[in-house]
Amino acid sequence: MDMLTRLCCKGTRKRCLLLFGVLYLIFAIALVRNSNNFDDSLPLVENNYEIVSRKNGYPSNHISPIKEAAKALAKEVVQIKPISKQADYLQPKNLSSKPLTQEKSPDTLCKSLPKPTFLEPGKKPLTALHSFPGSGNTWMRVLLSSLTGYNTGDIYKDGAFAKTPGFSYRKDDTVVAVKTHHPFWDDFNGADPAAPAGRYWERAILIVRHPLDATISVFNFFGTHGSHTKVAKLEKFLLPDGKPNKSWEKFAHDQIRNWGRCLEYWINIFKGKILIIFYEDLKVDLKRQLININNFLGLPLDETRLNCTIESNMQQKFHRNQNIDKRILYDTSMLNEVEVVLDNVKILLTTNYTHIDETFSMPASYASNLIRENFSVKPDSEKHP
To answer: What percentage of residues in the chain have a pLDDT greater than 70?
Structure first.
């Protein structure tokens, strides 16, 4: 220190401060080097190593004064040790060993189902899907293809559904069922002339809708140039004074009789196995009716497809939204025609036919004695439609 004092005294104040600064820097460097003497060669975390804790501290001969102060503030220090492949944190006891997968939502699951395909030829009977026009045949084709995963056929080659999934123009046993209105547009004699290659239908699903509703529906079809969803204008049904339009009146009488003749043909003349499905039952208990149809076809029931079919049906894509009260459309002579036809059909359906599946029961609305009762009170709109 005496030497430093003598040097500072001989020189200027600036030289003295510079000298002390250099000495301070040398001291700081030495201090840092001394603090790094302990072993830092091992990393705290490496692959396939587990971090564990202890309270042993560092060896005293490796601790600098600075590290000694740091140790006093720390409660724990860490070291590493190898772990086995069966480490507990890699195999949690409360979790499944199966890989975790995200469950699909019902909508995503239904959309991911394979598109309808064709059956192998010669494996299933040639099946007719019959209905009087306006009784839900197109709706049933949508339900069938969705339920079974197989395409349906059509003897009429309706171009309106050329691109509809599950619809095809085939009319053989490679489709789950073939649409037909026979004998509505045929000669009412013998087999359906549209049946493929002269083959007769081997079995049939009959869709039956109440004649009052079916007649209005088929009139809408013709009154809208073949639309399956549009509704004919009211003036095509009724005149301004509320009386039936002559064209509608004649059409209704003819088609009510044809409705009965179609059922008579299939029940009396056709000898193959028959399943009768009422349109009204489809609207009330769709699931039960779909299961009956699937059993009749002899196909394994796919619960996923069943649920998706019911869910998609809620969209009502193939239904007409007609709010007109049918009580203003039918006069007394038309109702008389309906009562006669329903009485005859009731006799047919209650006869013990061995070729008719017995899973059906006629809805209460088909009772002829209820027709007059339901139409006894006319709405006010009858006078001014």
So the answer is: 65
